[in-house]
Amino acid sequence: MSHRRDWTLLDNIGCLVTNDPELGRGPLGLLVDAAVVVGEGLVRWVGPSTRIPEGAAGTRHDLQGRAVLPGFVDSHAHLVFAGERAEEFAARMAGAPYTGGGIATTIAATRAATDRALAATVSRLVAEGWRSGTTTVECKSGYGQSVADELRSLQIAEVYTPETTLLAAHVVPPEFAGRPDDYVRLVCEEMVPACAPHARWIDVFCERGAFDADQCRAVLQAGMAHGLTPRVHGNQLGPGPGVQLAVELGAASVDHVTYTTAADVAALAASGTVATLLPGADFCTRNRYPDARALLDAGVTVALATDCNPGTSYLTSMPFCVALAVREMHMSPEEAVGAATAGGAAALRRTDVGVVREGARADLIALDAPSYLHLAYRPGVQLIREVWQEGMLM
Ligand SMILES: N=CN[C@@H](CCC(=O)O)C(=O)O
Ligand SMILES: [Zn+2]
Question: Do the annotations mark residue 85 as ligand-binding?
């Protein structure tokens, strides 16, 4: 390795999660007493502290025995919105069910907001996520529901992340009440062409009360025809066709997956579609949790994400999702940490994040703890000590 004065050696790492089984033990590719060299935004070298190449870097950064992981990959978030719905949350905690009806409140507030106010919210939530160790975040539109408002939502989102998603088919907006097919036509014929240049993904809310399988298929196919890759909100509030539709269209991910049948699990296991579980939403809506064990034991790739949004999951903490996954969904700490990092990367079809190996993006987090186990063991505690984004300490 050539000497690079502007590269940094992170050494004295007590426990390193690489997510590369060729680099270390088990599926998390664990190394103890490890070191990483970062430079020009990328990971340049990974290995045991005893084998650091001579002159590997100009600067040394001592981790003092802390655990280091890939930054979290939050593959499901709705960050472009205005207002909040704390009263709706309180009513739910008093027994009211979640039906998705509150989405209309956020649509009205978002339409009335200035671009500047919407951008400030995205910026605040991305920064909140950073402080919890999120270095890659996906961001959906879906609270605009008009051509102009979906377009500006994506234009604001793309300033903060390349992982932007057109969720025009979130709910039928009030002006189309009783005419869902007219709205679907508007989405397919006008919103998709206008918004596709600003999105990587096309998403739909496939659920009773939102859009049915045929309407969702039409929207997803319209997006695919414009170069977008599908992902699906499905099986959140009850059993439904979301999982099967996602598999049929080769979606990158189907998200929520709270109510599944054996056939859904088998279809996912035979597919390349990731199941993204959103335990924050189930927590905040007092829903049941997905059967993560059935999915994992069948061999399905599982991701964890926050679903940050003002209705069902107003949170940005991936560590909280890891803790919920372990405590409530019976995932092992290894499975949960893998799902929050490599799983999220798989859900976004990214090979450069969610992993610490030579050539990957140098997105790393250091915990105020000796092991990744503490993420589940110390729920609610701020353990994120350092966040390195593309090799820069934030
Ligand atoms: N389920 C659909 N969309 C969001 C909730 C949106 C809202 O209630 O504002 C979700 O993923 O949970
Ligand atoms: Zn969502």
Answer: yes
Domain boundary among 330, 348, 366: 348
Count of structural domains within the chain: 2
Beta carbons within 8 Å of 51's beta carbon, 6+ residues apart: none
Q: Are residues 289 and 378 in the same domain?
A: no
What is the distance between the alpha carbons of residues 167 and 114, in angstroms, rounded to a whole number? Answer: 20
Instruction: Indicate whether 249 and 364 sit together in one domain.
Output: no
d(CA 388, CA 130): 10
- Say what angle helices 103-112 and 147-157 make with each other, to 10 degrees: 80
State how far the Cα of 73 lies from the Cα of 279, in Å rounded to an integer.
Answer: 15
Mutate to test the pocket of ligand 1, among 233, 277, 314, 315 (most ligand atoms within 8 A of CB): 233
- Centre of ligand 1 to C-alpha 82, Å, is 14
ipTM attached to this prediction: 0.96
Q: CA-CA distance, 266 to 21, in Å (whole number)? A: 26
247 lies in some domain: yes
Q: Please report the pLDDT score of residue 3 as a whole number.
A: 55
Q: What is the CATH number of the domain that holds 107?
A: 3.20.20.140
The bound ligand whose nearest atom lies closest to the alpha carbon of 142 is 1
pTM given for the model: 0.97
Compute the distance from residue 56 Cα to the ligand 1 centre, in Å. 47
Q: Tell me: do 148 and 54 sit in the same domain.
A: no
Domain span at 197 = 72-348
Residue 56 has a pLDDT of: 87
